[in-house]
Structure formats: C-alpha cells, structure tokens
Amino acid sequence: MQPRRRQVRSFVRRAGRTTAAQSRALHDLWPVYGIEPPGRPLDLDVLFGRSAPRVCEVGFGNGEALATLAHARRDVDFLGIEVHEPGIGHLLLAIEKTDLSNIRIARQDAVEVIAEWLPAASLDRLHLYFPDPWPKKRHHKRRIVQPAFLDLVARALKPGGILHMATDWGPYAERMLEVAGGSAAFRNVAGPGAYAPRPPERPETRFERRGRRLGHEVRDLLFQRLPC
Ligand SMILES: C[S@@+](CC[C@H](N)C(=O)[O-])C[C@H]1O[C@@H](n2cnc3c(N)ncnc32)[C@H](O)[C@@H]1O
Question: Model-level pTM?
C-alpha cells in the first residue's frame, strides 16, 4: 500500500494566549455550540434544529464578522470553522453575550470539514475573509485557495450559491481571481477578471484593519456557483 502523502496545511497551530474568560467559555459553551468530528456527513437541519439558509465562514479568526452577521441575520444559520483556540473562545463569549442560537463551530482543518463533514449542495454562501497570505514563494503551496480547494467548495455550495473572498494581499487577490476565474464551476459576479465592490454588509475584520493600517488595498471577490 502507498504511504499516505502528508497533506500541506494552510495553517500552523499557534500557541496563542487564551484568557481566563475564553477558557471558561471553551469549557462551558463548547458542548453547546461546538461540533465534534461526526465520522459521516452532518445533517445540518438536525445540527441547527431547523431548516434555514446556511453560511459557512472558513478561518473566522476571533469571530467578529461571524458574530456580527449572525446577530444581524437570525433567520440564517452560520457554521464557523477555525483551528485557533483563543479565537474560538472569543467567538463563544460573543455568542453568549448576544444570545445567538444560529452559530455552530468546527475546530478542525476546513479542508476536512468541507470535504467530509458537509453534504453536497448544503451551503448558500461560503466566506473566506483575509486568509493567511503566505507571501513567501516557497510557502505558496500553503495558501488555502488552490484549484482542489475550490472543487471542494463547489461541491458544498448550492447551485447559485456564493463564494465571497476578501484579502489585503495584492498577489493573493490576483491568484484568487486566476484560480476561481479558471474554474468551470464558478462565474465571477463582477465580470471576468474583475474585483467586486465591497458589499456593505461585510463586517470589517481584525486582519482587515491590520492590512489597512499597513496601507494595503483590500479586494473583495464574489463568485457564483454555476448549475452542474
Ligand atoms: C489571517 S487570519 C484571518 C482571520 C479573520 N478571518 C480575520 O479577517 O480577522 C486566518 C485564520 O484562518 C485560520 N485558518 C487557516 N487555515 C485554516 C484551515 N485550513 N482550517 C481552519 N482555519 C484555518 C487561521 O487559524 C487564522 O485564524
């Protein structure tokens, strides 16, 4: 049997400091809002206890955008995916503070969650805001936006569903345009080769503020899943 090739991941697990409040939230609230590896595709209606439009955010960081959108749209269910524990703790505290019942969290590599946990055509939108840019050439293979990743996203989105990406790293924005624009599964909503105007409903994120402070230009990209 061929040895399984080690997958290149788009993250490194950073230790980070978890505050006492975040640790308490992880202990008390994870059992309510966290999803343990299911071993088979999730039944999202059972998970959320209802049938509703579904949005997934990959790499939500401290969960600011996710919590803001979930607060504004209580009629929509939000699945957040993140591997950074303090960020998950931060989001759990926001969920508690504003009494949100429409968020569930996966603490796992998003590639695995999208490929193995999500049923086909189960999402209305997928948000990827300010993914790690991995600027060095030798690290480009770690960038999450790759043709194989977009194939997974295409499978998980409903026909007509939207992939919304944003980044403050110019060369990564160009690569996103190239990869998503080259996929037969997607249509660039802004037109071929074009960036989208920033949708006013997209909340500002921590990494976006950091990028702006550094003088980086922020780009939004909207791609629609075409019918098969
Ligand atoms: C640069 S930060 C951006 C965070 C947030 N979206 C923002 O704009 O503030 C990227 C985040 O993606 C997470 N991440 C990267 N690859 C991931 C993966 N494969 N699965 C889950 N999370 C991932 C990292 O842990 C990190 O918190």
Answer: 0.96
